[in-house]
TrEMBL record:
It comes from Etheostoma spectabile (orangethroat darter). This is EGF-like domain-containing protein. It is found in: Cell membrane. The keyword Plastid does not apply. Residues 86-122, 627-664, 947-980 form the EGF-like domain.
Length: 1200
């Protein structure tokens, strides 16, 4: 049973009270539970407790609370069960509230609802007063006698002003002047209950207060009262007496008159401090008063019998009295709009007799941007009034604007949101059509005939085009643009014009496909902003804010003359009919003048800050002939008009095919790079180097990238989400492959052969691997790592490379399973960030952001050379594999293959340089924030294979290729499937020519059936092997004979990497001769070792000459490599990859035997003068610096 305790104040308790009183500075709320009392205290900002009987044992339960308020203890003991619930059965029989007492219960009604009998209340209010109080809307019921007000539970009411009620549908309407909408100050509101229209005012009192009248279609507008008015606030119509009532807070009166303003009389002229809202019902007049904070009423005919209905109400605004039974039976009015909407396509509005109704539709209008909204001014009516385009989205900095009159859509650009959007003229169907790759879109033009949208971007200095829905986007002009702004189209002529207000201001023209570009005007220009074409007058008009003139010329830039001067600061310019219209920043107005003479200037609208672009639209004017209208001009993608014909075009980065009409779906070779919040593509097939956003969703902080050319998927790491994800390049199919156990994944590499992915985690200091779907995850390296970053794989060699920019910077290599780990370079390193491999020349390239340079070496860290120095702050780099075969001569290489690309944090750019010489440095893309990783995607990049390429090497989980073998491995966490690290025989897939054999490279690839190899296979294999050896011996004899014709045996040799041939390399041990002291100054530090009692130097010997070819072409290429000064000649040997094209391949022993036969050709390494380090080559391809030199002294014969 619950007990109720009563206690006297603290001073009356039977104990010392002085100190207790001092310990309670400001108690606020109190509760009790069991033997304790709990309270909150404002002063001490705490919750306290004490014994509820004695007040002793005070303690602080919780302190440092900001104004603790009420407090309660929650426990079943506080609400004990038991006792009789007098309302428990059927709510005591009450329809609404049942209130129990000690003996019985009482039925009650909500505030304002009358009681119809002992148990039931009315279901609604019949007569009540509605009033707005800024932050809420309230009502006072006349159905009860208490006249109490209660709040209508509405959400997000901030500054309610005007009210009205639709009794038929039961809806309440109000205006709010704070909520962010397209309205400025909606102060008045009225409902047309006949045609279901809503009317409102959007302004304050003007400089000349007045009361006006017009037809409900805005016709026959007249001023009915204009004198003796100050602040005319409330306005009400008495339909019974046909009187108009209004309240004037300045005059402190309530007056009335006829509908035409005649017979004006003061109804109440005293004790009205500040009347605002006003309404009439039956024989009473009701109003709100700001100053007296009250709602009052009086007789509507005499003004007598004043009563105060409610008082002490702050912020009183509009007021309406409603009688449900009377409002549903409002005056019957003939509605000509009831049948077929009065024949109107849009709005049908009631009108005074004799019209009865009229259709509302703007056929010609001005539409202009005002940064945070778009407004329209009708040109169909004799006065200018701007209305806001009610777009259901926020606008931050709307600049350019365009209209498609055919579909009735408006297009605009927002330089803050960096988007181009569109919606219907009525503000519906808003959508973003371009949301990537924009910076500051200053100009925009809609080709309503060809169904295209053109725009200029002064941030990217580009002019682009796309379909009206944003698809098929293409860069038309990207060179020699400084700050392009306005753009105008002449579709019938196939021309586009634009202004450029850069350092050398100009006005240009080109065909609408970007060709035939010509500068029309380049002198006496300052800030050419607005641009318009007068097709009827065959002239071009522009507004110059610096020279403060509006000028005109013919369509070729001739016959230039000034139309209007001075103009203060014109920005947007447009033309319709015989007038030109422009926006002016300084006067904050829209102006109009005659297009031919520049005279008769008037102000269309004033007091409009933030004015930007403006367009004039006549929706009834014919659009003209579409040159691309028939079958899209025969084009598969873009059809663009030209002066005399049309041209087919492809989206940015894609080349037009040879038929001149069709395009591929995507470029063949391209760069992919990340800048934290986006992934972008730059085509290498075209010369514009324009970045195109890859529409991958949900990017937060993308760091590293890689690509799988087999499945066509992009892999990337996001260090904010700590995930590794993959997606298609069209943005579809995004999935998370690794979602746990990641901290900071800086590097990512895809093994496209074994279908594995590798990554570095600088937060966990690990290198891990998993299958491409994220399964079979395994840690490969987790020791002696400080800050691992970039990572790269060489599947055909079985190597894994990575950089570490920690305390002791280094570049390391291991097999793909993490074994045989080796430090390649650990000297003269700062912050080795990016890393990439040249699979053909067998070289590593890396960027050093601390030493500001790009370097390279061979796969063992030898032959190190500086490619570029200085560079600002490089982060990542990549390079394209040459599109060549072992038989491709120098002259047949693509120019795109010679570049190495990198991202730079400091210059915020992507740059490239010739990877062979370090020269011809170029900026590919500039002004990109947050640049991170970069990779090349090309069908020639991910080539080659290994023993894991077929059936995963027979492994159940992970297969790791090595140089001459492969290994199977299991994931760190079992996945429920049996895992084996040994070879699992599998049947070869149909169409394959080899089955992996564990841990040994096969001499001759064969298809092995389940029953075992046939003896015939051994015979055939032996015959083919012998034949291959014979062919090899013959080729060597021919090679030595040919080489003797141009070799100089008396001069020492220098070995070098020849990037012009497809090469394959082996490590060759060369006995080094004694070097002079200068050698140690010129060379990079290299790892030396002892082998067989000799000191050896490991160098790279190029394999690039196919000795199996009978064509003299390749021998001619070889013979053209002439010795330079100092007697240098090349040292070349057979390409084992080429030899494998025969029926059998050479193993390591056979390769060494072959090299021993050629040892005399590569017998000496001598130091040369610096001028003789780089020998001449065919087709003027200079050789890369090897990084070392030797003395001109014959050495002993090399041993292999």
């Amino acid at each position: 049973m619950e007990c109720i305790y009563f206690w006297p104040p603290w001073p009356q308790l039977n104990q010392p009270q002085a100190n207790e009183r001092q310990s309670l500075p400001h108690p606020f709320a109190i509760t009790v539970f069991e033997d304790s009392l709990y309270w909150t205290d404002w002063h001490t900002k705490s919750i306290n407790s004490a014994n509820k009987f004695t007040g002793k044992n005070q303690e602080i339960i919780r302190n440092k609370l900001h104004f603790p308020m009420d407090i309660h203890t929650l426990h079943p003991q506080r609400q004990p069960a038991g006792g009789r619930n007098r309302c428990g059965t059927n709510n005591g029989g009450c329809s609404h509230l049942c209130l129990p007492s000690n003996k019985t219960h009482t039925c009650a009604c909500p505030t304002g609802f009358k009681k119809v009998d002992h148990n039931n209340c009315a279901n609604g209010l019949d007569k009540f007063l509605l009033f707005a109080r800024r932050t809420d809307i309230r009502r006072i019921s006349f159905d009860t006698e208490d006249m109490s007000d209660d709040v209508i539970p509405l959400a997000d009411v901030r500054n309610a002003v005007a009210l009205d009620w639709d009794a038929k549908d039961g809806y309440l309407y109000w205006t709010d002047v704070v909520v962010d909408t397209s309205l400025e100050s909606p102060a008045g509101l009225a409902i047309d209950w006949v045609t279901n229209k809503l009317y409102w005012t959007d302004a304050d009192w003007g400089a000349n207060p007045k009361i006006e009248r017009a037809g409900m279609d805005a016709s026959s507008r007249i001023v009915i009262i204009s004198s003796n008015l100050t602040w005319p606030n409330g306005l009400a119509i008495d339909y019974d007496t046909k009187r108009l009532y209004w309240a004037d807070a300045g005059m402190k009166t309530i007056e009335f008159g006829n509908f035409d303003g005649s017979d004006r009389q003061v109804l109440i002229g005293s004790q009205l401090p500040h009347p605002f809202g006003l309404t009439v019902h039956e024989d009473k007049l009701y109003w709100t008063d700001w100053q007296s904070k009250s709602i009052q009423s009086a007789d509507k005919l005499t003004g007598l019998g004043r009563l105060t209905l409610a008082e002490n109400l702050e912020n009183l605004m509009d007021i309406h009295i409603l009688c449900v039974s009377a409002d549903t039976e409002r005056i019957t009015v003939h509605n000509p709009c009831a049948v077929n909407n009065g024949g109107c396509s849009h709005l049908c509005l009631l009108a005074p007799a004799p019209k009865a109704s009229s259709c509302a539709w703007m056929s010609s209008f001005l539409i202009f941007a005002r940064r945070t909204d778009i407004r329209m001014v009708s040109l169909d009516i004799p006065y200018f009034a701007d209305v806001v385009l009610a777009v259901n989205s926020s606008m931050k900095n709307t600049i350019a604007i365009g209209v498609d009159p055919k579909e009735g859509k408006v297009y605009w650009s927002d330089s803050t949101l960096k988007k181009i959007s569109r919606s219907d003229i009525n503000g519906k169907a808003q959508e973003d059509i371009i949301s990537t790759g924009l910076v500051t879109t200053d100009g925009l033009a809609v080709d309503a005939v060809g169904r295209k949208i053109y725009w200029t971007d002064t941030g990217t200095n580009r002019i682009e085009v796309a379909n009206l829905d944003g698809t098929m986007r293409k860069v038309l002009v990207w060179q020699n643009l400084d700050s392009p702004r306005a753009i105008a189209l002449y579709n019938e002529m196939g021309y586009m014009y634009w202004t450029d207000w850069g350092e050398h201001a100009k006005l240009e023209r080109s065909a609408m496909d970007g060709s035939d570009r010509v500068v029309l005007i380049s002198n006496n220009l300052g800030w050419p902003n607005g641009l318009a074409i007068d097709m009827a007058g065959s002239q071009l008009l522009w507004a110059d804010a610096h020279t403060e003139r509006i000028e005109a010329a013919d369509l070729n830039g001739q016959n230039r003359h000034t139309l209007v001067t001075p103009v203060q600061h014109p920005y947007g310019l447009t033309l319709l009919g015989s007038h030109i219209y422009w926006t002016d920043w300084q006067s904050r107005s829209i102006q109009r003048a005659d297009k031919n003479t520049g005279t008769n200037t008037i102000t269309v609208r004033a007091n409009l800050p933030g004015l930007m672009d403006i367009q004039a639209v006549d929706r009834e004017r014919p659009l003209g002939f579409n040159k691309c209208g028939r079958r899209n001009g025969g084009c598969t993608h873009l059809c663009l008009p030209r002066p005399n014909d049309t041209s087919c075009a492809c989206p940015t980065g894609i080349l037009l095919k040879g038929d001149g009409r069709s395009c591929d779906d995507s470029p063949e070779s391209f760069l992919l790079f990340s800048n934290r919040v986006s992934v972008r593509r730059i085509s290498l097939d075209t010369n514009d180097h324009t970045d195109v956003h890859v529409p991958v969703p949900e990017l937060h902080n993308v760091i590293s990238l890689d690509y799988d050319s087999v499945d066509g998927k992009l892999y990337y790491t996001d260090v904010t989400l700590d995930v590794i994800r993959r997606a298609n390049l069209d943005g579809t199919g995004m999935e998370t492959v690794i979602s746990q156990g990641l901290k900071t994944t800086d590097g990512l590499a895809v093994d496209w052969v074994a279908r594995n992915m590798y990554w570095t985690d600088t937060g966990r200091n690990t290198i891990e691997v998993a299958r491409l779907d994220g399964t079979s995850r395994k840690v490969l390296v987790n020791n002696s790592l400080d800050e691992p970053r970039a990572i790269a794989v060489f599947p055909s060699k079985g190597f894994l490379f990575w950089t570490d920019w920690g305390h002791i910077a280094k570049i390391e290599r291991s097999h793909l399973d993490g074994s045989d780990r080796k430090v390649l370079i650990n000297t003269d390193l700062g912050w080795p960030n990016g890393l990439t491999l040249d699979y053909d020349t067998r070289r590593i390239f890396w960027v050093d952001a601390h030493l500001d340079r790009i370097e390279s070496s061979d796969l063992n860290g030898k032959l190190r050379q500086v490619l570029v120095s200085p560079v600002s702050h490089p982060f990542a780099l990549t390079q394209l594999k040459p599109v060549s075969s072992p038989l491709t001569p120098f002259s047949r290489l693509s120019q795109q293959d010679r570049w190495i690309y990198w991202t730079d944090w400091q210059t915020k750019s992507i740059q490239r340089v010739d990877k062979h010489t370090g020269r011809n440095k170029e900026t590919v893309l500039a002004n990109v924030e947050g640049l991170m990783d970069i990779i090349v995607v090309s069908p020639h990049r991910q080539t080659g294979t290994n023993l894991c390429g077929v059936n995963n090497g027979g492994c159940t989980h992970l297969c790791f290729a090595k140089t001459n073998s492969f290994v199977c491995a299991c994931p760190d966490e079992p996945d429920g499937r049996p895992c084996s690290t040994s070879y699992v025989p599998t049947s070869p897939a149909r169409g394959t020519s080899s089955t992996p054999v564990p841990n040994k490279i096969p001499k001759a690839p064969t298809d092995t059936p389940h029953g075992g190899p046939s003896p015939v296979n051994y015979v055939i294999g032996g015959v083919l092997t012998i034949l291959a050896i014979l062919i090899l011996i013959a080729a060597l004899i021919i090679y030595r004979h040919k080489k003797s014709k141009f070799a100089d045996p008396g001069v020492s040799n220098l070995t070098y990497s020849n990037p012009s041939y497809r090469t394959s390399t082996q490590e060759v041990k060369i006995e080094a001769s004694q070097k002079p002291p200068i050698y140690n100054q010129l060379r990079y530090k290299k790892e030396g070792g002892v082998d067989g009692g000799y000191t050896k130097e490991k160098i790279r010997i190029v394999e690039g000459v196919c000795l199996l070819s009978n064509e003299e072409l390749y021998w001619d290429d070889l013979k053209q490599i002439k010795p330079s000064r100092g007697g240098l000649h090349t040292c070349m040997r057979t390409d084992t990859v080429s030899l494998q094209a025969s029926s059998a391949s050479l193993d390591d022993g056979e390769t060494e035997q072959l090299l021993q036969e050629e040892a005399s050709e590569c017998s000496s390494i001598t130091t040369l003068t610096p001028s003789a380090i780089t020998p001449q080559r065919h087709a003027h391809h200079s050789l890369p610096d090897t990084g070392w030199a030797s003395t001109r002294k014959p050495s002993t014969e090399s041993e292999v």
